[in-house]
Design brief:
The protein is α+β, with helices and mostly antiparallel strands. The chain is built from nine helices and eight strands. It has one domain: Peptide methionine sulphoxide reductase MsrA (Peptide Methionine Sulfoxide Reductase, Chain A). The strands form two sheets. A six-stranded mixed beta sheet has the order 7-6-1-3-2-8, covered by helices on one side. A two-stranded antiparallel ribbon has the order 4-5. Strand 4 and strand 5 form a beta hairpin. The protein is globular and about 35 Å long. About 7% of the residues have low confidence.
């Protein structure tokens, strides 16, 4: 893990340097907008896992589990699990960019799931479990594509990244019982066997970015 963290730090530095000129031109406007919140939508397998991880980060205001990228309105969990609606299980993340940057969120995203397996995360199989970034603006698109390109060039993962980077078009909150699932159901078998080890590993790696 230490070597992987070092590689990610190197990649993060490269991306930061590439964007330096563009960012410095926008310092004034960014300072004026620092109080604003931003939104990103991530798909990284089961949304119970994704929600549990990103809810722990400093600067993240709210995380909502739901469905994005499909063809019908207001799908149910049963319909999405059938794999016929085209939706991905996602989390919509509302964050303070002056407290946590989009690049930092991406760093967590890449390191807390396997972005090289198509339509699968561990034992969860289906298009609803695909790795996806639904960007909300062109800046997010640019940063995500550059980050993905550098990770592939540096061969951080053994296989190429298959993460979909797509413009955000819709989001439907999942049923109430899916919200805060790990927090409310931590002793359930799936939570104990799958989510808890993942969350504990995340908390060790990103301990300096956690809420207190």
């Amino acid at each position: 893990m230490k070597s992987l963290i070092s590689i990610f730090s190197f990649v993060f530095l490269i991306i930061s340097c590439v964007d330096y000129q563009a960012e410095t031109k926008e310092v004034i406007s960014q300072d004026l907008n620092n109080s604003k919140m931003d939104t990103i939508t991530f798909g990284a397998g089961c949304f119970w896992c994704v929600e549990a991880i990103f809810s722990d980060l400093k600067g993240v205001e709210k995380v909502v589990s739901g469905y994005s990228g499909g063809t019908i309105k207001n799908p149910s969990y049963k319909e999405v699990c059938a794999g016929t609606t085209g939706h991905a299980e996602v989390c919509q993340i509302i964050y303070h960019p002056d407290e946590i940057s989009f690049k930092e969120l991406l760093e967590v995203f890449w390191q807390t799931h396997d972005p090289t397996t198509l339509n699968r995360q561990g034992g969860d199989v289906g298009t609803q479990y695909r790795s996806a970034i639904f960007y909300h603006n062109e800046e997010q698109k640019k940063i995500a594509e550059e980050f993905k390109e550098v990770l592939n060039q540096e061969k951080v993962f053994e296989n190429p990244i298959v993460t979909e980077i797509t413009a955000y078009s819709n989001f439907y909150p999942a049923e109430d019982y899916h919200q805060d699932y790990f927090e409310l159901n931590g002793e359930q078998p799936y939570c104990s066997a799958v989510i808890r080890p993942k969350v504990e590993k995340f908390r060790k790696v990103f301990k300096d970015k956690l809420k207190k």
